[in-house]
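Revision sheet: structure tokens.
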Amino acid sequence: MTCRCGFTWWELLVLVLITAVLTGITIPKFQDLIVRSKEANTKAGLASLRSALQVYFSEHNAYPSDNLDSLAKDGKYIPEIPITQIPGTEHKDSNAVLLQSDVTDEGGWIYYNDKADSAKWGTVIVNCTHKESMGAIAWNEL
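Predicted:
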């Protein structure tokens, strides 16, 4: 009686093929999860900025006149300005806050602090015109 130790060449080949197929299926799913987690991080940052602005407004009866640094000062309203992460675009991760009314598509945030424009005064949007990964809505429309 012969003792067979180990696998044959064909068994190893089948094992490698099965592993390759499973890897080919799972890697794109994980990449999609990374994209969605970055987008969720940006949306959460937007929500926390807007919430901090409402608390600031309730205490001062006005919105900050600076680039939101007063929200993060001493961590009273928000620990720090959140970072925008917009995957699938050329935008770098940024926590820059621009004070303007036009979207420049540079990433970061846009804060409208002009009292003359009462419809937009005190609002924050993402400085990006691209659509999110699901293609449903543009970032600056959130």
